[in-house]
Amino acid sequence: MARKSPIVFITLGLVLLTLSYLLAADLFGLMPDSRQAVLDARKKVVESLAVQLSVAASRGDIVAIRETVDALVRRNEDVLSAALRRVNGERLAVSGPHDGYWKIDPEGNSSLPNQAIVPIYRGDQRWGGVEVRFSPLYPSLLFGVELTPLLKLTLFVCLLASVGFLLFMRRTLRHLDPGAFLPARVRFAFDALAEGVVMMDKRGSVVLANSRFLADTRREEQRVMGARIMDWDWCLAETGQPAPDTPWMRALRDGCRQTGKVLRLEVADGEMRTFSVNASPIVGEDGKVRGVLATFDDMTVLEDKNRQLEKALSELQASRNEIRRQNQRLRVLATQDPLTDCLNRRAFFDLLEKSIARARRNGVPLACMMADIDHFKAVNDTWGHETGDAVIKRFAAIITAKLGADDALGRYGGEEFCLILWGQDLARAVSHAEAIRAAIERDGAHPPVTCSFGVAVLDADIVDGAALVKRADEALYAAKEAGRNRVERWPVDAGEERARDVPA
């Protein structure tokens, strides 16, 4: 059985109470009696007719009596029919369908509220009578119930009062404060919740809101009660666009719980607040959704903290990137020669040791080359140190252009450079050095310079990078002694280590 709304029962009670007042007023004679007024009017018509017909009967004017009866029926809408009858029962005249209207009750009394007999006298003796049938006082309904003015008023009041009270109660109950009927301890517990809580009816109108919600939204309780908060300017937290729907209205419409929906609302002075909204439908005993309970968790402070944390993380990331760039710069400064951008001596020897270990591990040949600019002191003395630096830079650039992807160039000191040639045996390394020497010789820059090269390859007797460089250095000085601008390999022809006093 469907559960009726309390509003319907309240409306029914008010209507019945109003009807009881009407019936009590009629019982005490406070209602106008239109029935008696109609009967009094008919009585006067009958008495007047009796006088007229008695005068005509005393003269024996039957025609006048008939015309008077006929005129009565034709001119009076309240009269349905009439008939002239002698005392002996002889009917002398009839006007209207009298036989169908005239009735005699079981007790033999022909004078009823809707009909009467007008006696006609001739002298002191009754001569006859006129039977007059009037219209019913009130229309008849089912089972002979008459539609009296009191019944009309009752039906009218029932109809209008039902509609009026129903609308009035709906609007009145919508604006009632349910919290006023809650026990103080329940209201205290409701307001003690850390998040905003709102109870709404099936139209989405607020029927109950705790103090946390009112404080977070910066609104007064009088403005919130009965309002449809879905009409407020809710926005989507992700895009800032107006929210096309709200979680509590979806819960009402679909009957499903909505959780974790993030919305934003502009409160006083343009301040934006962010809420995480949960909404659960309130279902009645009949299984129908009667309302919704929504919670509003203010996430504004948490969101601000998250933004500050994101900003701090961004600044930290920028700082880390800057530190990484600075470290990279320091690594460059620590490993590169500032004049030629090739490896400095320390970085070159670190790479050489790694290359030797890798070559032995993979069984790949490895060559080391020493290169030196011929008569570089004369360049400095003649053209100056600035020109000398330019010659060194040009010299390093030409060598770098001739290196492979796994090869390396390092500045050994002054105008001396050391090269690592990956995957090259002695013959290929010597050929490579010759190609570099020729490129420098025909470079055509001013002042023109030449260079000398010494080449050595890794073998089983090499214990470390210094030993390999020493062999290449011996070959270089052999090239110097042999006249410069040439390439020599280790072992040198003399088979002895040359002293390092050969002029540059």
Structural summary, described in words:
The chain is built from 15 helices and 15 strands. The chain has helices at residues 6-27, 34-59, 62-75, 98-101, 149-175, 184-191, 211-217, 221-224, 247-254, 300-335, 345-362, 376-383, 385-401, 426-441, 465-481, and strands at residues 79-86, 91-95, 115-122, 125-134, 196-201, 206-209, 234-236, 258-266, 272-283, 289-298, 366-373, 408-413, 416-422, 451-457, 487-489. Residues 495-504 have low confidence and may be disordered. It has 3 domains: 34-137, PAS domain (Beta-Lactamase, 2-Layer Sandwich), CATH 3.30.450; 178-298, PAS domain (Beta-Lactamase); 336-489, Alpha-Beta Plaits. It is 46% helix and 21% strand. The chain is an alpha+beta fold. The strands form 3 sheets. Strands 6-5-10-9-8-7 form a 6-stranded antiparallel beta sheet, sandwiched between helices.
Q: How many distinct helices? A: 15
Find the CATH superfamily of the largest domain. Answer: Reverse transcriptase/Diguanylate cyclase domain
> Which residue ranges are poorly predicted, with pLDDT under 50 across at least 5 consecutive positions?
495-504
Structural class: alpha+beta
Percent of residues in beta strands?
15-25%
Shape, per Cα inertia axes: rod-shaped
- How many domains would you count in the coordinates? 3
**Major sheet strand order:** 6-5-10-9-8-7
Question: Can you write the helix and strand succession as a string?
Answer: HHHEEHEEHHEEHHEHEEEHHEHHEEHEHE
Enter the CATH topology name of the largest domain.
Answer: Alpha-Beta Plaits
The total of beta strands comes to 15
Give the N-to-C terminal Cα separation: 117 Å
Average pLDDT reading: 84
Which CATH class of the largest domain is shown?
Alpha Beta
Radius of gyration: 62 Å
Main beta sheet: strand number and arrangement? 6 strands, antiparallel
What is the correct CATH architecture of the largest domain?
2-Layer Sandwich
Helicity range of the residues? 40-55%
